[in-house]
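Appendix C reproduces, verbatim, an entry submitted by the partner laboratory led by Prof. M.T., so that reviewers can inspect both the input and the predicted structure.
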Amino acid sequence: MAEINNKLLETLIKRLDGLLDVFGKASIAEFVELYRKPRRLLYLNFLAGLFRGFGIAVGFTAAGALFLYLLGKLAALNLPFIGRFLAEIARIVEVELHRLP
């Protein structure tokens, strides 16, 4: 009986060591520490949101600039449907600018 208990204890210790290794690799301790300090969690989430918003703004600006550049190149080709399209956009923008207080 003692031999079975020793074998069972050894197996349990091996499994616990494996579990500790998995938790160590998953950085569970860092997550627990983060939740113990709610101010740090809020601070890190604020920074993440700030940088995410900045990235979206820069990306949208770059994509919009590229779109306008390509649209300008298309307009320079003197394609009739593109010219009418751009003229209509310019007219709409002009009307909306005059409607602003």
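The radius of gyration is 31 Å. Additional entries are available on request from the coordinating office.
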